[in-house]
Amino acid sequence: MPDDRRPYAVLDIDATLSDTSERIHFLQQRPKDWDSFFAHAKEDAVLDEGLAVATTLAADHEIVYLTGRPERLRRDTVKWLEDNGFPDGKIYFRSNTDRRPSAVMKLYRLKALSAERPVAVLVDDDVKVCAAAEKAGYTVMRADWGLDAETQPTLFEAQEKEGRT
Length: 165
Description:
By secondary structure, this protein is α/β, with parallel strands linked by helices. It has a single domain (8-160), classed as HAD superfamily/HAD-like (Rossmann fold). It is 36% helix and 19% strand. It contains six helices and seven strands; from the N terminus they run ββαβαβαβαβαβα. The protein has helices at residues 34-39, 48-58, 74-83, 102-116, 127-135, 152-160, and strands at 8-11, 18-19, 45-46, 62-70, 90-94, 119-124, 140-142. The strands form two sheets. A five-stranded parallel beta sheet has the order 5-4-1-6-7. Strands 2-3 form a two-stranded antiparallel ribbon. β4, α3 (74-83) and β5 (90-94) form a beta-alpha-beta unit. The longest helix has 15 residues, at 102-116. The radius of gyration is 15 Å and the shape is globular.
């Protein structure tokens, strides 16, 4: 049985653990097709670097998944994590109506988690989330393996301006 006093390792999902490149086109059109973007999340490929980081961290940390995905994707997300061999962990989603920027939403959750026990590291692809977490004193590992230069601006806009992922 794992030691429940282990520090948290907090991992983002989209573009950190999952490859969003096959569905990002739904956000590059006007209007953005959020329903299709999220409906296809269960088809994402695994980012090998993300799986390796999650597996390594699980040896000495309690894993927490902190995603900007809406709560309505819980079932598909849990199944995706299990089917792809990710370590067990708590999963925190954005409420279905939460449109705060990801940096605000995630920092709020990090503060709540750190009240329970130390947060050893946050692994996230979003530069604004990483900067806010570092400014608040958290150790951050920037997941720069998940997006190419063409798709990054689209996902970051969705995360920060529209509070959707």
